[in-house]
Design brief:
There is one protein chain. The protein has six helices and three strands. By secondary structure, the protein is α+β, with helices and mostly antiparallel strands. It has one domain (5-122). The protein starts with a helix and ends in a 13-residue tail after the last helix. Residues 4-78 form the DUF7662 domain.
């Protein structure tokens, strides 16, 4: 399981569309200290994906992105992606109407990789049916 899975779970359950948090609050949710690089480099908070970015995969997997960042104040703002609002969660009406509702294969791989703490390229998904 990824070190940042608690952050994913927190953001999925969060009721608002915006969460501004101190780095200490993020650490509290994660359950451990953030790495030194989180306190020094904006890039740590970027919305990158791929190997070595398990922190951003955790919030992206939950349907969030980072926006405003203030390294000096040790504060970050997370924003829920428009298609991931709680009022849309669990609704399958869009599927019948031809709208995409759910995950892409890449999103599923990123989520599984974060959960299991491995690289997305090591995930294979087979669809039967």
């Amino acid at each position: 399981m990824s070190k940042y899975m608690n952050l994913s779970n927190y953001l999925v359950a969060y009721k608002g569309d915006r969460w501004t948090a101190s780095f200490k609050e993020v650490e509290s949710v994660v359950g451990s200290a953030l790495p030194r690089s989180a306190y020094l480099y904006q890039a740590w908070w970027s919305n990158q994906t791929g190997e070595g970015h398990s922190q951003s995969a955790s919030w992206k997997m939950a349907g969030w992105r980072t926006g405003e960042l203030d390294i000096a104040k040790q504060q970050v703002t997370f924003y829920r992606e428009k298609d991931n609002r709680p009022d849309k969660a669990g609704s399958h009406d869009g599927v019948a109407k031809g709208k995409r509702n759910g995950l892409t294969i890449a999103e599923a791989k990123a989520g599984l990789a974060t959960f299991f703490g491995i690289a997305p390229e090591n995930i294979e998904i087979t669809i039967k049916g």
